[in-house]
């Protein structure tokens, strides 16, 4: 996996925080700090990516079948009623 340079604009608050992390010696450079912070942000959204991929698979199945692949007649309503949310 190669590395690429990406230019971005940061507001003063974010840049000050990154600079503080470097000044405290937590990171050796802004680049290192930003890399780790971006990785942490991506990890926090991994479940969303999994859900998006699953929904995409359902759309693909719908195209292949010409109909929705799974029918849950009343299941959602029943679940919500059981949890007193309907």
Properties at a glance:
4 helices, 86 residues, 2 domains
Low-confidence stretches: none
SSE succession: HHHH
Summed up, the domain count is 2
What's the number of extended β-strand segments? 0
Beta-strand percentage range: under 5%
**Biggest sheet record:** none
Task: Write a structural description.
This protein is mostly helical. The chain has 2 domains: 12-44, no CATH class; 47-82, no CATH class. It has 4 helices and no strands. It has helices at residues 12-23, 30-44, 46-65, 75-82. It starts with 11 loop residues before the first helix and ends with a helix. The model has no long low-confidence stretch (mean pLDDT 86).
Brief digest:
With 86 residues, the chain is mainly alpha-helical. Helix content is 64%, strand content 0%.
């Amino acid at each position: 996996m190669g590395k690429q340079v990406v230019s971005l604009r940061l507001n003063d608050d974010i840049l000050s925080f990154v600079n503080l992390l470097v000044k405290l010696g937590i990171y050796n450079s802004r680049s290192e700090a930003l890399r780790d912070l971006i990785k942490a942000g991506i990890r926090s959204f991994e479940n969303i990516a999994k859900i998006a991929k699953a929904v995409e698979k359902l759309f693909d199945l719908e195209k292949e079948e010409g109909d929705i692949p799974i029918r849950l007649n009343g299941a959602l309503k029943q679940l919500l009623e059981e949890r007193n949310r309907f």
